[in-house]
């Protein structure tokens, strides 16, 4: 895995490969208190993107990952796609829409959909396809945002009854427990 893999740096549970790009893009933000947004600078954003596109290529052998050279102006575009994605995955954003071109081709195995467009458009298209497939396989409801309001980490809930709340029990879960404990002390 590349050094800037967004999800891995947050020590939380990684989604199946079919949601790789979606979870990665969402997790470029991470815990809001630390402010280490990988999309803040072109250098870190490019390093992250190169790594994640290599990984995407590895798990989608029949398709071709786009090669994308980010310019400063693209960072805002990428952040907008991320906001739209938050809206679709968590229902918390005002912009739950992702308009993306999809390429449909016919082959020996029937009709196949693959990401269309170029640059940021290709990324938006690739995550849109991931969302569709994840919903079909009933995986999408397991992709969740950490319930700590100061944390934007998106984790994949592997618990039996899909009941996990925190991206990491030791940090965000622990802080919530301490808060609840203090509140109880005050009340008694
Ligand atoms: Zn968290």
Compute the separation of the termini in Å: 49 Å
Q: Just give the CATH class.
A: Mainly Alpha
Strand order of the largest sheet: 1-2
Structural class: mainly alpha
The tally of beta strands, per DSSP, is 4
CATH architecture call: Orthogonal Bundle
Mean pLDDT: 89
CATH-derived topology: Jann2411-like fold
Write down the overall geometry.
globular
Unreliable runs: none
Indicate how many domains the architecture comprises. Answer: 1
Give me the number of helical elements: 5
**Could you tell me the radius of gyration in angstroms?**
18 Å
- From the structure provided, what is the oligomeric state, counting identical versus distinct chains? single chain
Strand residue percentage: 5-15%
Which ligands are bound?
zinc ion
Structural features:
188 residues, mainly alpha, Jann2411-like fold, two-stranded antiparallel sheet, 5 helices, binds zinc ion
Report on this structure.
With 188 residues, the protein is mainly alpha-helical. Helix content is 43%, strand content 10%. It has helices at 20-26, 42-59, 72-90, 119-136, 169-187; strands at 102-107, 110-115, 143-145, 154-156. The strands form two sheets. The protein has a two-stranded antiparallel sheet with strand order 1-2. A two-stranded antiparallel sheet has the order 3-4. Strand 1 and strand 2 form a beta hairpin. The longest helix is centred in the middle third of the chain and has 19 residues, at 72-90. It is globular, with a radius of gyration of 18 Å. The mean pLDDT is 89. It binds zinc ion (ZN). Zinc ion binds at residues 31, 146, 148, 151, 153, 166-168, 172. Zinc ion binds next to loops.
């Amino acid at each position: 895995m590349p050094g800037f893999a967004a999800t891995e740096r947050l020590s939380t549970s990684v989604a199946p490969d079919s949601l790789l790009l979606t979870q990665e893009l969402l997790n470029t933000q991470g815990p809001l208190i630390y402010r280490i947004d990988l999309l803040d600078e072109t250098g870190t954003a490019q390093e992250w993107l190169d790594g994640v596109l290599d990984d995407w290529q590895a798990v989608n052998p029949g398709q071709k990952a786009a090669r994308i050279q980010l310019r400063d102006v693209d960072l805002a575009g990428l952040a907008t796609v991320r906001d739209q994605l938050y809206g679709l995955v968590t229902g918390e954003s005002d912009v739950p829409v992702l308009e993306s071109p999809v390429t449909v081709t016919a082959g020996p195995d029937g009709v196949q959909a693959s990401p269309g467009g170029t640059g940021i458009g290709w990324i938006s298209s690739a995550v849109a396809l991931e969302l569709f497939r994840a919903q079909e396989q009933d995986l999408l409801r397991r992709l969740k945002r950490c319930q700590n309001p100061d944390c934007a980490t998106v984790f994949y809930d592997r618990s039996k009854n899909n009941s996990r709340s925190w991206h990491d029990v030791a940090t965000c879960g622990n802080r919530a427990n301490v808060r609840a404990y203090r509140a109880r002390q005050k009340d008694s």
